[in-house]
Amino acid sequence: MASTVVVLDNGAHTAKVGLANQEEPRVVPNCIMKAKSERRRAFVGNQIEDCRDTSALFYILAFQRGYLLNWDTQKTVWDYIFSKEGIGCSLDNRNIVITEPQMNFPSVQEAMLEMLFEQYRVAGMYKTTAADLAAFNYVADSEERTTMQTLNCIIIDVGYSFTHIVPFVLGRRVLEGIRRIDMGGKALTNHLKELISYRQLNMMDESHVVNQIKEDVCFVAEDFKEAMRVHQCEKKRKEVAIDYVLPDFTTIKRGYVRIPGRPRMDEETMQTVPLCNERFTVPELLFNPSDIGIHQVGIPEAVADCLKACPWQAHRELLLNILIVGGCAQFPGFLPRLKKDLRALVPDDLEVSLICPEDPVRYAWYGGREVATSPNFEEFVYTRDDYEEFGVHGLNQR
After folding, report:
1. Burial, 141: exposed, middle or buried (Cβ in 10 Å; 0-12, 13-18, 19+)?
2. What CATH number does the domain containing 371 carry?
3. What is the pTM of this model?
4. What InterPro entries does the record point to (predicted)?
5. Distance (Å, rounded) from C-alpha 339 to C-alpha 296?
6. CA–CA distance from 195 to each of 2, 59, 166, 231 (Å)?
7. What radius of gyration do the chain's Cα atoms show?
8. Which of 134, 181, 93, 49 is nearest to 367 (CA)?
C-alpha cells in the first residue's frame, strides 16, 4: 500500500520527510542544536522553534563534508522524525524511500542498511539519490510525452556541502559525467561569517543568524566585474548598500533589512550590520570557488565539462533540460547568470534552457512520492527477507 511508504530525502542541512499519501513533506533541520540560553537542553529538529534565544547556537551535524558519518546524531534526529512530535508514525514494518549522496561510500551504505533493518525494523527500502528523484519528478511534471526511458536532462543539485552536476541520458545516470564541486550553502555561510567578523563585528559563533542574513540579502551579480564598481560610483553603492538589523531575541526573533526613512520601534537602539559588496561576492563562490582557494571550476564550467562525457547526440536535449534544485538555487539572479556563463561555453548552435522549480528544496521529495506511488514500486524494494538472505551485499547486486 502506497500510504504506508515513508519518503525521506535525507539532506546534510535539512531532512524532507513525509508519507507518500501526503501533499507536503515536513522540512526538519538534520542536526542537534544547543543554545547558550538553555544549556541543559538539546534541541532536535523543529524543537528549535521553542528556543527563546538562538544566539551563538551550536550545531552537532550528522553529515561531515557531505557524508553521513555521525550515526548517533542521525539516530537522534530520526527518532524525533518518526515520533508523535515528528510525522506521527514509526518506521516499523513500513517501506521507505531514502536518499544518499552521489558515489556514497560502501561502508556508509552498509551502516544505513543495518540501522534501518535492525533498529527501525523497516519492511523494505528503496535507496536512491536526490538527483534521481528530481529527474523522476521532472518526468512526472512534463507536459510532453516524456518517459524516464527517453529522458535526457542535467540535474544541478546545489546542496549544503557540495554542488553535483548529474547528467541523465535515456533515463540513466551517466556516471562518467557526474561532476562535484566542493562548494555549497555551508561554505557560503562560513565565508559570510568571516567577512562580517573581519569588517564589522565578530559573528564567528553566529552560524544561525548569518545563515538568515545570507538568505535575506544575498544575490548573484549578472556581471561580477561591473558589480564590483559599487565602490567607485555613489549611485551604484546606494543601490547595493543596506543596513541589516540583528535580532535581540526579545522583541526581534529574526533580523531584517532596515528601510530608510521608515524606522520600526526601538530601531535606533538595535545593533545593525552594514553590508555592501558582501551581498554578491558570497554567492559568487558558486561560479568561482578559487576566490577562497578551492582549486576547482565553477558551476558553468563543470556543466560544460560534464557534457564531454555524454554522447554528442544527446547534447542538444541535455542543454534544453537543465534542472536546478537545492537551497542555493533560490538566490535572486542565479539563473540569468548561469545561463549567460553557460551560453559562452557551449556551441552557438545549441540552445540553453534552465528550469528552476518553485520549490527547489522539496523538489526531490516530490519525486520520491511519485516513485513510492508508482504501480511497479514493489519490484524495486529491497525487502527484509532479501536483507536476511543476502545481507548488505545483495543491495549492490540489485
Report:
1. middle
2. 3.30.420.40
3. 0.89
4. Actin, ATPase_NBD
5. 20
6. 48, 21, 32, 17
7. 22
8. 134
By the 10 Å C-beta count (0-12 exposed, 13-18 middle, 19+ buried), 333 is classed as middle
Number of domains in the chain: 3
Query: What is the spatial distance between Cα 252 and Cα 268, in angstroms, rounded to a whole number?
Result: 13
Do the beta carbons of residue 112 and residue 68 sit within 8 Å?
yes
Specify if 290 maps to a domain.
no
Q: Do 300 and 179 share a structural domain?
A: yes
139 & 164 share domain = yes
User: 388, 384, 368, 369: which is closest to 133 by C-alpha?
Assistant: 368
Kindly report the three-state secondary structure assignment for every residue of 323-383. EEECHHHHCCCHHHHHHHHHHCCCCCCCCCCEECCCCCCCHHHHHHHHHHCCCCHHHHCEE
Q: Residue 95: helix, strand or coil by DSSP? A: strand
Instruction: Identify the CATH number of the domain in which residue 225 sits.
Output: 3.90.640.10
pLDDT tens digits for 207-257? 888 998 999 999 999 888 888 888 787 888 888 888 888 888 777 788 888
d(CA 27, CA 361): 9
DSSP string, 185-209: HHHHHHHHHHHHHHHTS--TT-HHH
